[in-house]
Design goal:
Blueprint: H1 4-12, H2 15-26, H3 29-33, H4 38-72
Length: 73
C-alpha cells in the first residue's frame, strides 16, 4: 500500500509525468521476465495472465455494480 503522501504526489503529476515514471519503472523488466528455463519463463507469463484476468474481472464486477446502483435510483 502506498503512503498518503505518495498517492498525493502521483495525483499532482500530469499524465505525461506518470507515463514517464511508468516507462522508467519498466526498464529491464522484459529481460528479467525472459530469463530462466523455458518452464520458468512460461510460469512467469502464466502468472501475469492470471493476475491480469483477476484484475480485469474485478474491474468488470465494479463496473456492473456501479451500473446497477445507478439504474436503481
Amino acid at each position: 500500500m502506498l503512503s498518503p503522501e505518495t498517492l498525493q504526489s502521483y495525483r499532482k503529476m500530469t499524465p505525461g509525468e506518470r507515463l514517464r515514471l511508468t516507462f522508467k519503472l519498466m526498464q529491464g523488466v522484459d529481460r528479467m521476465l525472459c530469463q530462466g528455463t523455458s518452464d520458468q519463463v512460461a510460469r512467469k507469463f502464466e502468472l501475469l495472465r492470471r493476475e491480469n484476468d483477476r484484475r480485469n474481472e474485478n474491474m468488470l464486477q465494479a463496473i456492473m455494480a456501479t451500473q446497477k446502483s445507478s439504474t436503481v435510483k
